[in-house]
C-alpha cells in the first residue's frame, strides 16, 4: 500500500512538473510592442558619486542630459499613461521583449549658444554626447534604431554625457530632437544651465 502511494505521488509530481514547464514555455511568448509618445529632457550634474538633477550650475566637465522617452503599449498615445498594461492569469513569469515598429532614425542635440568657435549655436552636437551603458561611454547614436526593452515601463531613460566642453563658462540651453521612422518629430528643451 505504501509503495502504491509513493508511486502515485511521484507520478503526480512528474505530471505537475510537465504541466508547469509547458505553461512556462517562454520561447513561445510573443514580443510586445511599444510606441514613443514624446520626450522630455533635464540637466544632470555628474560631479558627485550620485548623479543629480541640476538646478542652475554644473561644472562643464560633469554636465549630462537626461533623455526620457515616454512610451505606451496602447494603440494611441494619451496624455496620461497607466503603469499597468494588462493582467496575467498565471504566475509564470516569462520575460517579454518589447520593441517598436516606429524606431528612432535620427537624434540631434543642439545648443542655443556657442560651445566654441568650431561649434557655434545651432550645430548638431549629438556626436559629442555619449551614453553610459553601465560599463563605458558609447556614442549616443546607439539609441537610434529598434531599441528593445526587456520589461515594460512608461519611460525609457538615457543619460547623455557631454564630452566636448564649452571653452568658457556661461549659460547653455540644450534642445534634443528625435525623428521616428514615420516622420514624427519630438523635441524638448532643457532649462537654461550655467556651465562653469
Observed structural traits:
signal, DUF5034 domain-containing protein, three-stranded mixed beta sheet, 1 helix, DUF5034, 196 residues, six-stranded antiparallel beta sheet, mainly beta
Would you write up a description of this structure?
The protein has 196 residues and is mostly beta strands. It has one domain (29-195). Helices cover 11% and strands 36% of the residues. It contains one helix and 14 strands, in the order αββββββββββββββ. Strands 3-2-5-10-8-9 form a six-stranded antiparallel β-sheet, with no helix packed on it. The longest helix has 22 residues, at 2-23. The radius of gyration is 24 Å and the shape is globular. The N and C termini lie far apart (84 Å). 17% of the residues are buried.
Q: Which secondary structure elements does this structure contain, and how are they paired or packed?
A:
Layout (H helix, E strand, L loop, with lengths): L1 H22 L8 E2 L1 E11 L6 E2 L3 E2 L4 E10 L25 E2 L4 E8 L17 E4 L4 E3 L15 E8 L7 E3 L1 E7 L4 E5 L3 E3 L1
Parallel strand pairs: 1-6, 4-14
Antiparallel strand pairs: 2-3, 2-5, 5-10, 7-12, 8-9, 8-10, 11-14, 12-13
Average pLDDT for all residues: 78
How would you characterize the largest beta sheet?
6 strands, antiparallel
Shape, per Cα inertia axes: globular
- Which value, in Å, is the CA radius of gyration? 24 Å
Helicity, in percent? Answer: 10-25%
How many structurally independent domains?
A: 1
- Total number of helices: 1
Count of strand segments: 14
- Helix-strand pattern: HEEEEEEEEEEEEEE
Structural class: mainly beta
Amino acid at each position: 500500500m505504501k509503495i502504491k502511494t509513493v508511486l502515485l505521488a511521484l507520478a503526480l509530481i512528474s505530471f505537475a512538473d510537465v504541466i508547469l514547464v509547458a505553461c512556462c514555455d517562454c520561447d513561445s511568448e510573443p514580443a510586445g510592442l511599444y510606441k514613443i509618445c514624446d520626450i522630455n529632457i533635464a540637466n544632470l550634474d555628474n560631479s558627485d558619486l550620485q548623479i543629480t538633477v541640476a538646478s542652475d550650475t554644473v561644472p562643464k566637465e560633469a554636465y549630462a542630459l537626461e533623455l526620457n522617452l515616454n512610451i505606451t503599449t496602447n494603440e494611441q498615445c494619451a496624455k496620461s499613461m497607466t503603469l499597468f498594461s494588462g493582467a496575467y492569469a498565471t504566475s509564470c513569469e516569462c520575460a517579454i521583449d518589447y520593441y517598436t515598429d516606429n524606431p528612432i532614425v535620427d537624434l540631434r542635440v543642439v545648443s542655443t549658444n556657442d560651445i566654441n568657435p568650431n561649434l557655434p549655436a545651432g550645430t548638431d552636437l549629438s556626436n559629442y554626447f555619449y551614453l553610459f551603458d553601465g560599463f563605458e561611454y558609447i556614442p549616443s547614436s546607439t539609441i537610434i534604431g529598434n531599441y528593445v526593452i526587456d520589461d515594460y515601463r512608461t519611460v525609457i531613460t538615457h543619460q547623455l554625457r557631454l564630452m566636448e566642453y564649452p571653452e568658457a563658462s556661461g549659460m547653455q540651453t540644450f534642445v534634443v530632437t528625435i525623428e521616428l521612422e514615420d516622420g514624427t518629430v519630438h523635441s524638448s528643451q532643457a532649462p537654461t544651465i550655467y556651465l562653469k
